[in-house]
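Technical annex B. To support the medicinal chemistry partners, we prepared a structural model of the target in complex with adenosine-5-diphosphoribose, based solely on the information shown next.
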Amino acid sequence: MPLSKLWRWHTRSKITVIGAGNIGGSCAQRLAERGYADVVVVDIAKGVPQGKTLDILESTPLVGRDVRLVGSNGYEETAGSDIVIITAGIPRRPGMRRDDLLFTNMDIIKGVVEQVVHYSPQSILIIITNPLDAMAQLAWEVSGFPRQRVIGMSGILDTTRFRTFVAQELGVSVEDVQALVLGGHGDQMVPLPRLTTVGGLPLSQFLPPETIQRLVKRTIDGGGEIVGLMGSSAYFAPSAAAAQMADAIIFDKKRILPCCVYLDGEYGINGVFVGVPVKLGRGGAEEVIETELTPEESQALHRSAAAVKELVDTMHRRPKT
Ligand code: APR
Protein backbone atom coordinates (compact mmCIF):
# COMPACT_ATOMS: atom_id res chain seq x y z
CA MET A 1 0.00 0.00 0.00
CA PRO A 2 1.40 3.46 -0.88
CA LEU A 3 2.51 5.50 2.11
CA SER A 4 0.17 8.37 1.24
CA LYS A 5 -2.81 6.04 1.83
CA LEU A 6 -1.47 4.92 5.18
CA TRP A 7 -1.09 8.56 6.22
CA ARG A 8 -4.77 9.13 5.70
CA TRP A 9 -5.63 6.32 8.12
CA HIS A 10 -3.35 7.73 10.68
CA THR A 11 -5.21 10.61 12.28
CA ARG A 12 -3.32 11.84 15.28
CA SER A 13 -4.90 13.67 18.15
CA LYS A 14 -3.99 17.29 18.69
CA ILE A 15 -3.57 18.97 22.03
CA THR A 16 -3.00 22.69 22.46
CA VAL A 17 -1.46 24.17 25.57
CA ILE A 18 -2.09 27.89 26.10
CA GLY A 19 0.62 29.51 28.21
CA ALA A 20 4.23 28.39 27.82
CA GLY A 21 5.25 29.17 31.39
CA ASN A 22 6.09 26.70 34.11
CA ILE A 23 2.90 24.64 33.95
CA GLY A 24 2.42 24.97 30.19
CA GLY A 25 6.01 23.97 29.46
CA SER A 26 5.80 21.00 31.79
CA CYS A 27 2.46 19.94 30.23
CA ALA A 28 3.97 20.11 26.75
CA GLN A 29 6.89 17.96 27.83
CA ARG A 30 4.70 15.35 29.50
CA LEU A 31 2.41 15.15 26.47
CA ALA A 32 5.29 14.98 23.98
CA GLU A 33 6.85 12.16 25.98
CA ARG A 34 3.57 10.25 25.88
CA GLY A 35 3.72 10.59 22.11
CA TYR A 36 0.08 10.01 21.24
CA ALA A 37 -0.77 13.54 20.15
CA ASP A 38 0.68 16.50 18.31
CA VAL A 39 1.22 19.41 20.65
CA VAL A 40 0.84 23.13 19.95
CA VAL A 41 1.94 25.65 22.57
CA VAL A 42 0.75 29.27 22.44
CA ASP A 43 1.96 32.22 24.50
CA ILE A 44 2.02 35.98 24.08
CA ALA A 45 5.71 36.10 24.99
CA LYS A 46 7.72 36.28 21.77
CA GLY A 47 10.04 33.35 21.27
CA VAL A 48 9.07 31.51 24.45
CA PRO A 49 6.64 28.92 23.03
CA GLN A 50 8.90 28.51 19.99
CA GLY A 51 11.97 28.00 22.17
CA LYS A 52 10.33 25.61 24.61
CA THR A 53 8.80 23.43 21.92
CA LEU A 54 12.09 23.32 20.01
CA ASP A 55 13.89 22.27 23.19
CA ILE A 56 11.34 19.50 23.81
CA LEU A 57 11.44 18.48 20.14
CA GLU A 58 15.21 18.05 20.36
CA SER A 59 14.68 15.58 23.20
CA THR A 60 12.36 13.35 21.17
CA PRO A 61 15.10 11.22 19.56
CA LEU A 62 16.26 10.47 23.11
CA VAL A 63 12.84 9.57 24.44
CA GLY A 64 11.89 7.80 21.23
CA ARG A 65 8.82 9.76 20.23
CA ASP A 66 7.76 11.03 16.82
CA VAL A 67 5.57 13.98 17.60
CA ARG A 68 4.84 17.23 15.87
CA LEU A 69 5.49 20.10 18.28
CA VAL A 70 4.78 23.70 17.40
CA GLY A 71 5.21 26.91 19.38
CA SER A 72 3.33 30.01 18.33
CA ASN A 73 2.20 33.48 19.34
CA GLY A 74 -1.05 33.05 17.41
CA TYR A 75 -3.87 30.57 17.19
CA GLU A 76 -3.89 29.41 13.55
CA GLU A 77 -1.72 26.39 14.37
CA THR A 78 -4.16 25.31 17.11
CA ALA A 79 -7.05 24.81 14.67
CA GLY A 80 -9.00 21.61 15.20
CA SER A 81 -7.50 20.71 18.58
CA ASP A 82 -9.15 17.85 20.45
CA ILE A 83 -8.11 19.23 23.83
CA VAL A 84 -7.01 22.72 24.85
CA ILE A 85 -5.24 23.02 28.18
CA ILE A 86 -5.34 26.60 29.45
CA THR A 87 -2.52 27.69 31.76
CA ALA A 88 -2.20 31.32 30.63
CA GLY A 89 -2.22 33.86 33.41
CA ILE A 90 -0.27 35.15 36.33
CA PRO A 91 0.65 32.73 39.11
CA ARG A 92 0.74 33.32 42.87
CA ARG A 93 3.70 34.87 44.60
CA PRO A 94 4.42 34.46 48.30
CA GLY A 95 1.70 36.00 50.45
CA MET A 96 -0.93 35.86 47.69
CA ARG A 97 -4.13 33.82 47.77
CA ARG A 98 -5.39 32.25 44.56
CA ASP A 99 -8.34 34.67 44.65
CA ASP A 100 -5.97 37.64 44.41
CA LEU A 101 -5.40 36.70 40.76
CA LEU A 102 -9.07 37.06 39.81
CA PHE A 103 -9.25 40.30 37.83
CA THR A 104 -5.98 39.93 35.93
CA ASN A 105 -6.60 36.34 34.97
CA MET A 106 -10.23 36.81 33.99
CA ASP A 107 -9.20 39.23 31.24
CA ILE A 108 -6.60 36.74 30.04
CA ILE A 109 -9.00 33.77 30.10
CA LYS A 110 -11.71 35.67 28.26
CA GLY A 111 -9.36 36.61 25.42
CA VAL A 112 -7.86 33.15 25.21
CA VAL A 113 -11.18 31.29 25.21
CA GLU A 114 -12.62 33.48 22.45
CA GLN A 115 -9.70 32.50 20.21
CA VAL A 116 -9.88 28.83 21.20
CA VAL A 117 -13.59 28.62 20.43
CA HIS A 118 -13.02 30.21 17.04
CA TYR A 119 -10.27 27.78 16.02
CA SER A 120 -11.31 24.60 17.87
CA PRO A 121 -15.08 24.67 18.31
CA GLN A 122 -15.26 20.96 19.12
CA SER A 123 -12.45 20.93 21.68
CA ILE A 124 -12.55 19.96 25.32
CA LEU A 125 -11.15 22.68 27.59
CA ILE A 126 -9.03 21.84 30.62
CA ILE A 127 -8.61 24.91 32.81
CA ILE A 128 -5.62 25.29 35.10
CA THR A 129 -5.36 29.08 35.55
CA ASN A 130 -6.22 30.25 39.07
CA PRO A 131 -8.52 30.99 40.78
CA LEU A 132 -9.37 27.75 39.08
CA ASP A 133 -13.06 27.23 39.78
CA ALA A 134 -13.98 30.80 38.81
CA MET A 135 -11.78 30.64 35.70
CA ALA A 136 -13.43 27.37 34.65
CA GLN A 137 -16.83 29.01 35.09
CA LEU A 138 -15.73 32.01 33.03
CA ALA A 139 -14.32 29.77 30.29
CA TRP A 140 -17.62 27.89 30.17
CA GLU A 141 -19.64 31.12 29.96
CA VAL A 142 -17.42 32.66 27.28
CA SER A 143 -17.18 29.46 25.21
CA GLY A 144 -20.87 28.58 25.16
CA PHE A 145 -19.70 24.92 25.20
CA PRO A 146 -21.82 22.24 26.83
CA ARG A 147 -20.75 21.72 30.42
CA GLN A 148 -19.18 18.33 29.62
CA ARG A 149 -16.51 20.08 27.56
CA VAL A 150 -15.20 22.58 30.14
CA ILE A 151 -13.34 20.96 33.00
CA GLY A 152 -11.13 22.41 35.70
CA MET A 153 -8.01 20.56 36.77
CA SER A 154 -7.91 20.68 40.55
CA GLY A 155 -9.29 17.60 42.27
CA ILE A 156 -6.64 15.31 40.80
CA LEU A 157 -3.90 17.67 42.01
CA ASP A 158 -5.34 18.05 45.51
CA THR A 159 -5.90 14.29 45.67
CA THR A 160 -2.40 13.38 44.51
CA ARG A 161 -1.01 15.64 47.23
CA PHE A 162 -3.08 13.88 49.88
CA ARG A 163 -2.11 10.45 48.47
CA THR A 164 1.56 11.42 48.60
CA PHE A 165 1.39 12.55 52.24
CA VAL A 166 -0.52 9.42 53.33
CA ALA A 167 1.91 7.10 51.51
CA GLN A 168 4.91 8.93 53.03
CA GLU A 169 3.45 8.76 56.53
CA LEU A 170 2.77 5.02 56.23
CA GLY A 171 5.83 4.04 54.21
CA VAL A 172 3.65 2.36 51.56
CA SER A 173 3.45 2.64 47.78
CA VAL A 174 1.73 5.75 46.47
CA GLU A 175 -0.07 3.43 44.06
CA ASP A 176 -1.94 1.75 46.90
CA VAL A 177 -3.35 4.95 48.37
CA GLN A 178 -6.65 6.03 46.82
CA ALA A 179 -8.31 9.22 47.92
CA LEU A 180 -10.87 11.85 47.03
CA VAL A 181 -10.78 15.61 47.51
CA LEU A 182 -13.95 17.53 46.66
CA GLY A 183 -14.88 21.20 46.54
CA GLY A 184 -13.20 24.32 45.26
CA HIS A 185 -9.45 24.54 44.70
CA GLY A 186 -8.81 26.81 47.66
CA ASP A 187 -8.70 27.04 51.43
CA GLN A 188 -12.16 25.46 51.61
CA MET A 189 -11.40 22.27 49.66
CA VAL A 190 -12.82 19.11 51.18
CA PRO A 191 -10.48 16.11 51.51
CA LEU A 192 -12.49 13.02 52.46
CA PRO A 193 -10.44 10.76 54.77
CA ARG A 194 -13.52 8.54 55.26
CA LEU A 195 -13.30 7.49 51.60
CA THR A 196 -9.51 7.20 51.54
CA THR A 197 -8.15 3.69 51.29
CA VAL A 198 -4.79 1.98 51.55
CA GLY A 199 -4.73 -1.24 49.56
CA GLY A 200 -8.52 -1.18 49.68
CA LEU A 201 -8.63 -0.85 53.48
CA PRO A 202 -9.94 2.24 55.29
CA LEU A 203 -7.34 4.87 56.23
CA SER A 204 -8.71 5.01 59.79
CA GLN A 205 -7.30 1.50 60.32
CA PHE A 206 -3.77 2.82 59.71
CA LEU A 207 -3.61 6.28 61.25
CA PRO A 208 -5.08 8.05 64.31
CA PRO A 209 -7.50 10.95 63.68
CA GLU A 210 -4.93 13.62 64.72
CA THR A 211 -2.43 12.41 62.13
CA ILE A 212 -5.11 12.27 59.44
CA GLN A 213 -6.13 15.84 60.32
CA ARG A 214 -2.51 16.97 60.02
CA LEU A 215 -2.27 15.43 56.52
CA VAL A 216 -5.62 16.95 55.54
CA LYS A 217 -4.38 20.39 56.62
CA ARG A 218 -1.12 19.92 54.71
CA THR A 219 -3.12 19.01 51.61
CA ILE A 220 -5.30 22.11 51.89
CA ASP A 221 -2.17 24.24 52.25
CA GLY A 222 -0.27 22.18 49.65
CA GLY A 223 -0.06 24.83 46.94
CA GLY A 224 0.92 27.51 49.45
CA GLU A 225 3.64 25.29 50.92
CA ILE A 226 5.34 25.16 47.52
CA VAL A 227 4.90 28.88 46.84
CA GLY A 228 6.46 29.50 50.26
CA LEU A 229 9.44 27.29 49.45
CA MET A 230 10.33 28.39 45.95
CA GLY A 231 8.58 31.72 45.51
CA SER A 232 6.33 30.59 42.64
CA SER A 233 3.53 28.11 42.00
CA ALA A 234 3.86 24.37 41.66
CA TYR A 235 4.03 22.94 38.17
CA PHE A 236 5.23 19.34 38.08
CA ALA A 237 2.21 17.90 39.89
CA PRO A 238 -0.28 20.22 38.14
CA SER A 239 1.05 19.21 34.72
CA ALA A 240 0.95 15.52 35.68
CA ALA A 241 -2.71 15.95 36.67
CA ALA A 242 -3.57 17.66 33.38
CA ALA A 243 -1.79 14.93 31.41
CA GLN A 244 -3.77 12.25 33.26
CA MET A 245 -6.96 14.05 32.23
CA ALA A 246 -5.77 14.18 28.61
CA ASP A 247 -5.04 10.41 28.69
CA ALA A 248 -8.53 9.68 29.99
CA ILE A 249 -10.14 11.83 27.30
CA ILE A 250 -8.08 10.81 24.26
CA PHE A 251 -8.24 7.08 25.07
CA ASP A 252 -11.87 7.30 26.21
CA LYS A 253 -10.89 5.56 29.42
CA LYS A 254 -14.02 6.47 31.40
CA ARG A 255 -11.87 7.14 34.43
CA ILE A 256 -13.55 8.25 37.62
CA LEU A 257 -11.56 11.25 38.80
CA PRO A 258 -12.29 14.38 40.82
CA CYS A 259 -12.59 17.36 38.48
CA CYS A 260 -14.06 20.82 38.64
CA VAL A 261 -17.32 20.90 36.66
CA TYR A 262 -20.53 22.90 36.48
CA LEU A 263 -23.06 21.50 38.90
CA ASP A 264 -26.69 21.54 37.96
CA GLY A 265 -28.32 20.26 41.12
CA GLU A 266 -25.89 17.42 41.85
CA TYR A 267 -24.92 17.30 45.53
CA GLY A 268 -27.66 19.90 46.04
CA ILE A 269 -25.46 22.54 44.37
CA ASN A 270 -26.61 24.67 41.47
CA GLY A 271 -25.01 26.95 38.93
CA VAL A 272 -21.39 26.86 39.99
CA PHE A 273 -18.14 25.02 39.15
CA VAL A 274 -16.96 22.79 42.01
CA GLY A 275 -14.78 19.68 42.30
CA VAL A 276 -16.69 16.39 42.32
CA PRO A 277 -16.02 12.90 40.93
CA VAL A 278 -16.77 12.66 37.22
CA LYS A 279 -16.50 10.04 34.49
CA LEU A 280 -13.81 11.27 32.08
CA GLY A 281 -13.92 9.99 28.52
CA ARG A 282 -13.94 11.13 24.88
CA GLY A 283 -16.98 13.26 25.58
CA GLY A 284 -15.22 15.08 28.41
CA ALA A 285 -16.81 15.01 31.84
CA GLU A 286 -19.48 12.61 30.68
CA GLU A 287 -21.20 12.14 34.00
CA VAL A 288 -21.12 13.58 37.51
CA ILE A 289 -20.86 10.74 40.01
CA GLU A 290 -22.87 11.36 43.14
CA THR A 291 -22.27 9.67 46.47
CA GLU A 292 -23.85 10.05 49.86
CA LEU A 293 -21.87 12.35 52.14
CA THR A 294 -22.09 12.65 55.92
CA PRO A 295 -23.82 15.84 57.13
CA GLU A 296 -20.40 17.36 58.02
CA GLU A 297 -18.90 16.49 54.63
CA SER A 298 -21.94 17.85 52.85
CA GLN A 299 -21.80 21.10 54.86
CA ALA A 300 -18.11 21.48 54.05
CA LEU A 301 -18.80 20.95 50.34
CA HIS A 302 -21.61 23.51 50.41
CA ARG A 303 -19.36 26.00 52.23
CA SER A 304 -16.71 25.46 49.59
CA ALA A 305 -19.25 25.92 46.77
CA ALA A 306 -20.50 29.12 48.46
CA ALA A 307 -16.94 30.49 48.48
CA VAL A 308 -16.62 29.78 44.74
CA LYS A 309 -20.03 31.38 44.14
CA GLU A 310 -18.91 34.52 45.98
CA LEU A 311 -15.87 34.78 43.75
CA VAL A 312 -17.95 34.20 40.62
CA ASP A 313 -20.38 36.91 41.77
CA THR A 314 -17.45 39.31 42.27
CA MET A 315 -16.35 38.44 38.74
CA HIS A 316 -19.85 39.07 37.33
CA ARG A 317 -20.21 42.36 39.24
CA ARG A 318 -16.96 43.76 37.89
CA PRO A 319 -17.69 46.78 35.70
CA LYS A 320 -17.03 46.13 32.03
CA THR A 321 -13.87 47.86 30.82
N1 APR B 1 -2.18 34.40 26.16
C1 APR B 1 -1.25 33.43 26.20
N2 APR B 1 -0.36 33.31 27.20
C2 APR B 1 -0.40 34.23 28.18
C3 APR B 1 -1.35 35.27 28.19
C4 APR B 1 -2.27 35.34 27.12
N3 APR B 1 -3.20 36.29 27.06
N4 APR B 1 -1.13 36.01 29.31
C5 APR B 1 -0.12 35.44 29.97
N5 APR B 1 0.33 34.37 29.29
C6 APR B 1 1.44 33.48 29.60
C7 APR B 1 2.66 34.20 30.16
O1 APR B 1 3.39 34.84 29.14
C8 APR B 1 3.41 33.05 30.82
O2 APR B 1 4.36 32.46 29.94
O3 APR B 1 1.08 32.57 30.63
C9 APR B 1 2.30 32.01 31.12
C10 APR B 1 2.14 31.73 32.60
O4 APR B 1 3.26 31.05 33.02
P1 APR B 1 3.90 31.23 34.48
O5 APR B 1 4.00 32.68 34.80
O6 APR B 1 5.11 30.39 34.54
O7 APR B 1 2.74 30.64 35.44
P2 APR B 1 2.46 29.09 35.76
O8 APR B 1 3.19 28.69 36.99
O9 APR B 1 2.61 28.28 34.54
O10 APR B 1 0.92 29.18 36.20
C11 APR B 1 -0.09 29.54 35.25
O11 APR B 1 -1.83 28.31 36.38
O12 APR B 1 -1.93 27.20 38.44
C12 APR B 1 -2.17 28.38 37.76
O13 APR B 1 -1.88 30.01 39.51
C13 APR B 1 -1.36 29.54 38.29
O14 APR B 1 -2.73 31.16 37.23
C14 APR B 1 -1.49 30.50 37.17
C15 APR B 1 -1.45 29.61 35.94
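Notes passed to the chemistry partners:
The mean pLDDT is 95.
Residues 278 and 288 are 4 Å apart (CA to CA).
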